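task queued by scheduler; priority normal; single chain, no ligands, no partner chains; default sampling; output format set to structure tokens
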Amino acid sequence: MFRRPLEFLNSLPAHGDLVGIRLGPLRAWVVCHPDLVHQMLKDTHTFDRGGTQYERLRSLLGDSVVTCPHAEHRRQRRLVQPPFRPSRVADFTELMGEEAELTCRDWRAGQQVDVSSALLAMTTRVISRVLFSDSLDAATATEVRRCLADVVRGLFLRTLVPVDAAFRLPTPANRRYRKAVAHLHTIVDGVIAERRRSARAPRAVRRADVLQTLLEAAGDGGDGLPALSGQEVHDQLITLLLTGAETVALCLSSAFSLLARNPEAERRLHAELDAVLAGRVRPAPDDLPRLVHTRSVVTETLRHSPPGWLFTRATTRDTVLAGHRLAKGSMVLYSPYLLHHDPASFAGPDRFLPERWLPGQTAPGRPGAMIPFAAGSRKCLGDAFAMTEATVALATLARRWRLRLPPGPAERQRPAVTLGPRRLVMTCEPRTDRPAARPARGDTPALRADGALRVPDARTAGDHGVDDA
């Protein structure tokens, strides 16, 4: 599980739909069938956020919308959700495009670029602007990105290894992790304090960002809900900062790596961008429903290399799952990576085939097997935001550049708390293709008006070693 986790997970369905494993002194259960995963995710009373993953995440994120128990989740979600509703996401499209364009503006032909680092810097700037508007200067945003990288690197073993003593030792990795966590909390506390001070100033300007929404919710919960506490405001911001930067950056890094290995998928992407954008540097909101193949590339990347690859739950009472009796407090794991790579769910699961998701195609997999954003009442509240950001960034970068893998072996997938390339270096190659004429709106298959994923409704239905920690 620790040395070759992806291969290990993929071996488990051969042993049944629910498989018992050992994590050190603890026994855990891995759910291997999508129907059972959905049964578990819908029953949040019995299978609550818990296990070593969430116990350790709480030390970093507090009791936020991601880590809080079932009893608190509905209140917190209703207070945090408004800025991430699909109807609001279009407001951020211009911001996302600006940051993507800034990312590649100074690239040069033949230059080798650390794509992983560049994309994490981009997504950190995007989520920082959404959360804090202009409250982070460039130097502080850089510090945030460095802290996030160190935190994510150290989280994997902390979320699965049940022995605390190993993480209290003064090793360089442990010191680096603790320093990054402390610095991240200090930065967020400073931004909150400065916003509160500026709000008391004469002629204070109200900023339309998530921090403002949360501070107002701290004053009045609205809809009869209790207000957020000051600590809850802090915890929500830390959570959104961590999840909003890392996962989208990893998805985009994986997408460019996969496109470089699959030239036909890359060619179709470029053809669509030339036709839809017609020479413009980035997409506008009304272009998004027509970027069908671009969005399919993002969706297939989430299937092939889901950033959220492993999650834990804890049973709140004795229960039965797949004929097995699970005692109260049992740890249950499920893996989107396992479900997405099961041949029983997706034909040729290791192949990168964006066309699986094009409109008009037959259902690409077993119902309920595609769950990159989880499912049920605790489905990721930022799924529409993440899909839009990834689509806009992919379109903006790929319209201008091809990114080529250098000769030699490519970086292998190295799971930490999330999955994706972390040291992906690629060579910039300017695109010189002549843009095609812009087609009429009826010539391109369209997504639904809200640009939603064409996947089953999740609510109803080499060496893969671990990053050093």
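post-processing summary
- The first strand starts at residue 18 and ends at 23.
- The CA atoms of residues 29 and 332 lie 5 Å apart.
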